[in-house]
Amino acid sequence: DYLYAVFRSRIFRFPDDVEFLLDDAAGVIQVRSASRVGKSDLGVNRSRVEQIRARFHHANLN
Questions:
Q1: What predicted TM-score, i.e. pTM, was given to this entire model?
Q2: Cβ neighbour number for residue 1 with a 10 Å cutoff
Q3: d(CA 18, CA 6)
């Protein structure tokens, strides 16, 4: 029901924490993506979550 992963930024390899939580009752997957370092990620985490969402949608898993 829960998955934790670490993604690394392309250039400096900074770690970003990503969490997925399957909410069976609501029929959704909750996603959280956050940078560990710095004040701004320039939209990288939002973009990552949107790409993951699009792949689920494309695979008809949503």
A1: 0.80
A2: 8
A3: 6
